[in-house]
């Protein structure tokens, strides 16, 4: 698989999983309506697909924004491969602190190395 194909998988993989959970929860709710024992849970369960779709929208919008910023030259890029970096994650202070994961090569890039690359 090409390195740049992994960019889409790493960026949108969580969104695809959240969308799958929305579809599965809709299928489960349709089965629960037929059961007299689980019919009471349908009232609360109706919100699960809606929340999963809202999470999916966020998980699509945030990486898309980062990828567009990277493509325009305003986002953070990987010093090793030049690929776009994901969201900042907190890390252990003994290991260098905050870091971002590259969507292209998958390396963890310490905050000291990507701060200077931003435009």
What does this structure look like?
It contains four helices and three strands; from the N terminus they run αααβββα. With 119 residues, it is mainly α. The longest helix has 30 residues, at 5-34. The two termini are 30 Å apart.
Name some characteristics of this structure:
119 residues; 3-stranded antiparallel sheet; transmembrane; single chain; mainly alpha; 4 helices; 10% strand; transmembrane helix
Sequence-ordered SSE layout with sheet pairings:
Blueprint lengths: L4 H30 L7 H4 L1 H26 L12 E5 L9 E4 L5 E3 H4 L5
Antiparallel strand pairs: 1-2, 2-3
Helix pairs in contact: 1-3
Keywords: Membrane, Transmembrane, Transmembrane helix
- Individual helix count: 4
> Sheet with the most strands?
3 strands, antiparallel
**Given the C-alpha coordinates, what overall shape results?**
elongated
In total, how many beta strands?
Answer: 3
Residue fraction in strands: 5-15%
How large is the radius of gyration? Answer: 19 Å
Average pLDDT figure: 83
Helix/strand/pairing class, anyone? mainly alpha
Straight-line distance between termini: 30 Å
Helix content: 40-55%
Count of discrete domains: 1
Give the helices and strands as they follow along the chain: HHHEEEH
- Which residues sit in consecutive blocks of at least 5 with pLDDT less than 50? none
Strand order of the largest sheet: 1-2-3
């Amino acid at each position: 698989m090409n390195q740049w194909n992994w960019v889409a998988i790493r960026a949108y993989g969580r969104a695809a999983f959240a969308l799958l959970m929305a579809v599965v929860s809709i299928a489960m709710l349709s089965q629960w309506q037929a059961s007299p024992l689980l019919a009471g849970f349908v009232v609360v369960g109706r919100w699960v697909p809606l929340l999963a779709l809202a999470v999916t929208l966020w998980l699509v919008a945030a990486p898309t924004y980062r990828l567009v910023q990277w493509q325009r030259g305003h986002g953070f890029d990987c010093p090793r491969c030049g690929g776009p970096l994901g969201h900042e994650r907190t890390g252990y202070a003994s290991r260098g602190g905050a870091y971002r994961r590259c969507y292209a090569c998958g390396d963890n890039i310490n905050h000291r190395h990507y701060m200077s690359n931003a435009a």
